[in-house]
Write a structure and sequence with these properties.
The protein is an alpha/beta fold and 469 residues long. 35% of the residues lie in helices and 23% in strands. The chain contains 15 helices and 16 strands. It has helices spanning 2-12, 31-39, 42-54, 60-72, 80-95, 154-159, 178-181, 183-194, 234-245, 298-317, 339-348, 377-387, 408-412, 427-430, 443-462; strands at 99-112, 116-122, 126-127, 130-132, 144-151, 168-171, 199-203, 229-232, 251-256, 259-273, 278-288, 324-331, 355-360, 368-374, 397-400, 417-422. The strands form 2 sheets. It has an 8-stranded mixed sheet with strand order 1-10-12-11-13-16-14-15. Strands 3-2-9-5-6-7-8-4 form an 8-stranded mixed sheet, sandwiched between helices. The radius of gyration is 26 Å and the shape is elongated. It starts with a helix and ends in a 7-residue tail after the last helix.
Amino acid sequence: MKYLSLIFFMSLLPQYAGKSLRGDGSHPRTFEDIKNEIAGYSDTAKAIIDLAVHGKAQNRSYERLAGFADTVGPRLSGSKNLDAAIQYMFGALQKDGLENVHLEPVKVPHWERGEEFAVMLEPRNHSIAVLGLGSSVATPPEGITAEVMVVASFDELHRRAQEAKGKIVVYNQPFVTYSETVRYRSQGAVEAAKVGAVASLIRSIASFSIDSPHTGWQNYQSGVPRIPTACISVEDAEMMSRMALRGTKIVVYLKMGARTYPDSPSFNTVAEIVGNKYPEQIVLVSGHLDSWDVGQGAMDDGGGAFISWEALSLIKDLGLRPKRTLRMVLWTGEEQGGVGAEQYYQLHKENISNFDIVMESDEGTFKPSGLAFTGNAKARDIIKEIMALLLPINVTDVFDNADGTDINYWMRDGVPGASLRDDLSKYFWFHHSQGDTMTVQDPNQMNLCAAVWTVVSYVIADMEEMLPR
């Protein structure tokens, strides 16, 4: 009997080769099993790519975005335009036949820039292109007239602190990378106020300029005087720097009518394709619907929002229904620090174990190069296999560190995250400026981005097991 049992056990070994046997008769899947499962989505991936890039859905995300951006315009947090944008999308998503279309209420900051005017009075009269920074206070009604002190860094400001009292500090910091240089926008007013300045003007955080100021959010600090602050063009910052280096006295008049109001009601906009096997488990795709109050917000982040909508539309058009629920969220209040997303996280974090992956596209929808991913090594290997399905459009790379203000809350708690990687060479030419319009967008590039976004989200949503974490 002992030998019969041994023979029976040995007969099982071939079918369990490479797999760990369990007492309950089941076995964990090997990576080879997972690779084979993903390879089985090849035809589906090709169908998605064909529909998005060559078929009836070609250019649809671009055309939808153009209609939206031209109709609604820029969508600043707390504004009537943002309210109109949310209602526009709510109706459009319902009309598209998506499921569980609804709005989730949140509170968002409400700041308005008001009248803005800056002019150089000495050594000559020159109009300065200016955009106030979000949350800035106003100047006195009569404005501020003061001598300018130009610095190239915070270190220089601190070294020359004794010269700054009563002056307007102009920062002419070089653009290195956005993440490194943006601290001058966010902290410039605080550092200038600490040394007695009456206002700060910051060289726009831009890699290229045609006399175009670029706005953005800035932060005050408790216990430090709040002084008016705005961005100026690269050209004006460099001109004043050259003048100062020659020893020329510079005087500027600045007037800003900015106002901060109590937080306003707003909404995150949600739509779904409900899963057919594990509907409680979520694959989340997203972009943010709000923008700054200049340009059209087409690039930041109209493109990301509309390829997220397109992902659900393509899956619906192909008659697909994944095992998990594919949920699209269009965030509100991202530009003020992800305030809409933070409230969404607080509302839904009790179900964090059911969130398979969180995805956000918020760095343009130019020619895609791949996917940035945050997760463990096993999950990364799975993502690499999924990206191989995109070989027909040559977008297969997986990069480190997904980036997205709105998904960071989830990634910090261990949920895998992904963000679209694309050609950023011109992104900061237009970012937060009057130049962020539909003219920046390219329909063919948006088609490719939509294909990437759809293939990745659908396959993850339809695989038998969630991504490991």
